[in-house]
Amino acid sequence: MSAERDGEVIRLMGDCPAGDAETLLALLQQEPGLGVDVTEAGGLHTAVVQVLLALRPAVRGELRDPFLNHWIRPLLPEPSPR
Questions:
Q1: Looking at the predicted structure, is the pLDDT value of residue 57 above 80?
Q2: Helix, strand, coil in percent for the chain, rounding step 5
Q3: What pLDDT band is residue 81 in, cutting at 50, 70 and 90?
Q4: What count of Cα atoms within 13 Å lies in the side-chain half-sphere of residue 20?
Q5: Which residues of 26-45 are buried (b: 16+ CB within 10 A; e: fewer)?
Q6: pLDDT at 14 (0 to 100)
Q7: pLDDT by residue (tens digit) across 6-23?
Q8: What is the distance between the alpha carbons of residues 3 and 82, in angstroms, rounded to a whole number?
Q9: Class of residue 54 by CB neighbours under 10 A (exposed 0-12, middle 13-18, buried 19+)
C-alpha cells in the first residue's frame, strides 16, 4: 500500500494506483483534519488526484511528477503555519 497514516498525516509513497484512492478517501473521511504528505509520491492515478481535489486536505511537499507538480499541486491547500 502506498497510502498510509503516520500520526497526523497520510503519506503517499511511490506510485499510487487507483486502489489507493479508496484508502485515501477512507482515511480522510475518518479524520477530516489529517494532512497529506506527497514528498515521497511518484505517479498518482487520476482517482487519487480526484480524492485530493474533492476533499482538499492540507498537502505538504512537492510532487515528483512534473505535470502533477505544475498543474495539480497549486490547486491543493498548504498546511496552516503553527
A1: yes
A2: 40, 25, 35
A3: confident
A4: 24
A5: ebbeeeeebbbbbeebeebe
A6: 95
A7: 999 999 999 999 999 999
A8: 25
A9: exposed
| pLDDT of 47 strictly over 90 | yes
The CA distance from 25 to 69, in Å, is 21
In the chain, which ranges are E strands?
3-6, 9-12, 14-16, 35-37, 41-44, 59-60
Amino acid at 15: D
How far apart (Å, rounded) are the C-alpha atoms in residues 9 and 25?
Answer: 13
Beta bridge partners of 35: 9
pTM, to two decimals:
0.93
What is the Cα 75 distance to its own chain's centre? 12
| Joined grid coordinates for residue 23 | 484508502
